Each structure stands twice: as structure tokens, then as C-alpha cells.
């Protein structure tokens, strides 16, 4: 019961911080129940506010201490309104060499803001789709990790470029 209250407090605090973030143009999360299956694709539908300004794009994720890998491989696909598709395989560092998980947070949940693309102009008007899938493999094994444990939420974020 106490753990649920602590988790609720953490989520409410995170929402408060995000709601005060004037740099954010789009910020959305989707929950991963139990484990993230290798065939499960998390999708976000985004309609950018304009086609002239440049933005930074991020994949956000929350993980627990049950995440047992030092890195994370993701396949991120951006589908443009007129059908063009860009697909990237990305690797992110998730832990220090000693096993300490990276990310923000003081309890069992860590939040990571991972660079996806920077200085992007959405030249096509309309709805973009962002698809995110994990591509984890264990060392020395050919087949991928079927059920990735420890990831609780996947998010996608668009930010205004910081003006100096």
C-alpha cells in the first residue's frame, strides 16, 4: 500500500513538472503492461503545430530496477503524412559500468529522456506517426529478447529549440 502511494506521489510530481514545461510542444506516454514483447509496437500520432520551426525529438521511457541490461536498442520509425518513412535503429546507454541505472528518479523508477532527432522541421502538414519497438538481444544469442522486463512506460516528446 505504501509503495502505491509513493508511486502515485511520483507520478503526480512528474505531471506537475511536465505541465510547467513551456519548452514542450508534445509529450505523451503509453504504459507497458508487465513486459514489452518484441513484436509490440508503441505508436504515437502527432500533428506538429507548424511547418517552419525546427524542433528536437526525444524518446522518453520509464524503467524500474528490474531492467537488467546496460543498454537499450530501439527501432524508431517516423511515418510522414504523405507516406514517406524513416526508420532508425538506435542504441542508448541505460546503466553505468557498475550496474547503477541512469536516469532521473530517487526510487525504483528511473525516467530517461533519450535523443531521437534534433533540429527537425516538419515540412509536410498533417499527422505523423511515430512507431517504437525494442530490438534487444543478449550477448552471444542470435534470437532477440522476447519479453523485455523493467520498462514501464514509453513516451515521445517534441520540444521547441532553445533560443539563446
Overall description:
With 164 residues, the protein is mainly beta. It has one domain: Jelly Rolls. Helices cover 11% and strands 48% of the residues. The longest helix has 18 residues. The mean pLDDT is 86.
Would you summarize the structure shown here?
This protein has 164 residues and is mainly β. The protein contains 1 helix and 10 strands, in the order αββββββββββ.
Main CATH class: Mainly Beta
Pick out the low-confidence regions.
Answer: none
Distance between the termini: 46 Å
Number of domain units: 1
**Helix coverage percent of residues?**
10-25%
Indicate the overall shape.
globular
Features:
10 strands; Jelly Rolls; four-stranded antiparallel beta sheet; 164 residues; 48% strand; 1 helix; mainly beta
Topology, element by element:
Blueprint (H helix, E strand, L loop, with lengths): L1 H18 L4 E8 L3 E3 L4 E5 L7 E11 L6 E9 L5 E9 L15 E13 L6 E7 L12 E3 L1 E10 L4
Antiparallel strand pairs: 1-10, 2-9, 3-8, 4-7, 4-10, 5-6, 5-8
